[in-house]
Design goal:
This protein is an alpha/beta fold. The protein is built from 21 helices and twelve strands. The chain has three domains: about 5-135, Rossmann fold, CATH 3.40.50; about 160-310, Rossmann fold (3-Layer(aba) Sandwich), CATH 3.40.50.300; about 320-400, Helicase, Ruva Protein, domain 3 (Orthogonal Bundle). The strands form three sheets. It has a five-stranded parallel β-sheet, sandwiched between helices. It has a five-stranded parallel β-sheet with strand order 7-8-11-6-12. Strands 9-10 form a two-stranded antiparallel ribbon. Helix 15 runs parallel beside helix 17 (about 375-405), helix 19 (about 425-445) crosses helix 20 (about 450-455) and helix 19 (about 425-445) packs across helix 21.
């Protein structure tokens, strides 16, 4: 970036913030043009002034209070890189601006090192308007026609990758969450730094803690020397926490502290270790439900869920399925040392109709089998067998749903089994179903310890047993269906 183009438009209604940004920019060799934004009275004049100032290299815009200015710049100067400025409290507006085309995020209160990071990336031409990068084929190996389910994901990926915001990636097992995390890192300014992966489900809690945070010599038996943890190894890079929903509550609390303070102490250590790490987290579970059930900390969930990316399952990506299969097939052929053989028409039809419960991972395994064996009948037989199992599972699940209760008064009315339906009846039935579901979830959370469940639900033990009986959750006074009763399973005694 040449000296003539090192000019920055700063839009912030806060005079002290404008002054600080202007001074810091000047120290770093930038020429700042500061503005408070506009009100209705001077909107036309201010817009005209900005329109004439076409030499700006970039803009810093406080999106929490000058959203109109951001929209105006995106419409009139689409080639101008805009850095969204805002506080954590305005996170929703920041995310909306990222989706609308902001190239980076500068948190408030602004810090010199964060500003330095943004300017370094601008000077290295690492952040540019989104349309300038789309032409370079940012979709990587997915060169086939993209389904609508993937268009939104890739648009968000390109914008999110160029920031340091924490990202929560969700999707079914095998859908490609790790690929998404890898893509984000490889397209970020941390590309030359480490990309460290940790599977939170693969290690017991104590081992996972030492793996993440490291330990000092003598911290425990066998700790013969200091060992750095994954956070230290990922310094100035990216740390990918896969299956984060499996992390123990104790470790969740420690992770939350690290995200807040950007520092931690090794096991057995007394001094804090400061780290600069971007966090990407992934899970196949519904974290909101995990929070409701008490298995995941709500405050940690909101820390991780700054930007949420959902990777759609393969069955929702029909338009690109065959193109993806061809691309993966070529790569798999190279891996196993076999020439690529296109799919037969019968296999193409079977692939298009199959539900793909194992998603991309299952597709890769099937294409490996095709590359090695090149046996159409064996693959068709596998698909037919798996489809039958899926159909059987769906029938059994439907039967279980039928056993859980009647279709209800509204369903009976819509089915023509009743002449009228009472809104009071519908409300009462909905309340009972919600109560049953709440009891069932808390029972699952307490591993069907009914005394603890009664305490958490703030009802008497006797009342809980009666409600369980009425809801069909086990026999009267009994334990979990199919499980022998425990010490707390005796039926309520009659009161004296």
């Amino acid at each position: 970036m040449t000296t003539s183009t090192r000019s920055m438009l700063v839009i912030d209604p806060d005079a002290s913030a404008r002054s600080w940004l202007s001074e810091e920019l000047s120290v770093r060799g930038w020429c700042a043009y500061a503005s408070s934004g506009w009100g209705e009275s001077d909107a036309a004049g201010q817009a005209s002034e900005w329109d004439r100032s076409s030499s700006f290299a970039a803009a810093l815009v406080d999106v929490s209070r000058t959203e109109d200015a951001f929209k105006w710049l995106r419409e009139r100067r689409p080639e101008l890189p805009i850095v969204a400025v805002g506080s954590v409290a305005s996170a929703s507006q920041v995310v909306a601006c990222m989706r609308a085309g902001a190239v980076d995020f500068l948190p408030k209160p602004c810090e010199a090192r964060e500003l330095e990071r943004v300017l370094s990336r601008l000077e290295a031409a690492e952040i540019r308007p989104v349309h300038a990068r789309v032409a370079r084929g940012l979709r990587g190996p997915l060169t086939s026609e993209l389904d609508s389910a993937m268009h939104g994901l890739f648009e968000m990926l390109d914008r999110v990758a160029r920031t340091d915001v924490t990202v929560l990636i969700t999707g079914e097992s095998g859908s490609g969450k790790e690929y998404v995390a890898d893509w984000i890192h490889s397209h970020s300014h941390r590309l030359a730094r480490p990309f460290v992966k940790v599977n939170c489900a693969a290690l017991p809690a104590r081992l996972l803690e030492s793996e993440l945070f490291g330990y000092e010599k003598g911290a425990f038996t066998g700790a013969d020397a200091r060992k750095p943890g994954k956070f230290e190894l990922a310094h100035r890079g990216t740390l990918f926490l896969d299956e984060i929903s499996e992390m123990s509550p104790e470790l969740q609390a420690k992770l939350l502290q690290v995200l807040q303070d950007r520092s931690f102490a090794r096991l057995g250590g007394e001094s804090d270790v400061a780290v600069d790490v971007r966090i990407l987290a992934a899970t196949h579970r519904d974290l909101r439900r995990e929070v409701e059930c008490g298995r995941f900390r709500e405050d940690l969930f909101y820390r991780l869920n700054v930007v949420h990316l959902r990777v759609p399952p393969l069955r929702e990506r029909r338009a690109e399925l065959l193109g993806l299969a061809e691309e993966v097939g070529r790569r798999v052929g190279d891996d196993v040392g076999r020439p690529h053989v296109p799919l037969t028409p019968a296999l193409r039809r079977a692939f298009e109709s199959y539900a793909w419960p194992g998603n991309v991972r299952e597709l890769e395994n099937m294409l490996k089998r095709w590359a090695v064996l090149q046996s159409e009948p064996s693959i068709l037989e596998y698909i037919e067998r798996q489809t039958a199992l899926l159909r059987k599972g769906a029938v059994e699940e439907a039967a279980r749903d039928q056993c859980r209760g009647p279709r209800g008064v509204l369903g009976s009315f819509l089915a023509g089994e009743r002449e009228a339906v009472s809104l009071r009846e519908v409300s009462r039935e909905a309340a009972l179903r919600a109560e049953r579901r709440a009891i069932e979830r808390v029972l699952e959370h307490t591993r069907w310890n009914r005394r603890r469940t009664a305490e958490l639900l703030q009802v008497s033990y006797k009342a809980l047993l009666y409600k369980m009986r009425d809801a069909g959750l086990g026999a009267e006074g009994g334990g979990r269906p199919g499980i022998s009763s425990g010490a707390d399973s005796s039926p309520p005694r009659a009161s004296a």
